[in-house]
Amino acid sequence: MSQCESYPYSESYAIISNDWILKAGIWEMGKIKFIYYQENDIWVGWLEEYPDYRSQGKTLDELKENLKDIYEDLGAGKIPNVRRHGELVVG
Question: How far apart are CA 23 and CA 28, in angstroms?
């Protein structure tokens, strides 16, 4: 896994693979990118598309499961006023 220079700490960039993604109301198999790092004995991370929603886990696998839960809640509309990360093409 490669290091992300655009984030503080020594965070890593990874993909939660073999996950179901909600697209237009239909769950599809896909991948979700997330950013993570280890701080002492705790793994901290967030979904790349939703940087405001951080989670943690005692192990990297526990962090991944927690991030999947957040993703499901976001897709189901259980979290109000969601801010997303986007990309704009100019010029």
Answer: 7
Cite the beta strand spans of the chain per DSSP E. 12-23, 26-39, 42-47, 50-57
Q: Which residue has the tokens 């979700």?
A: 32
State whether residue 40 is helix, strand or coil: coil
Q: Could you tell me the CA-to-CA distances from 36 to 15, 42, 85 in Å, in that order? A: 10, 11, 16
User: Is the CA virtual torsion 33, 35, 40, 42 positive or negative?
Assistant: negative
Strand-strand pairing, 26-39 and 42-47: antiparallel
Query: For residue 70, is pLDDT > 60?
Result: yes
pTM reported for the whole predicted model: 0.65
Span 22-44, pLDDT tens digits = 554 445 557 888 999 999 999 99
Question: To 5 degrees, how large is the angle CA 40–CA 60–CA 38?
Answer: 25
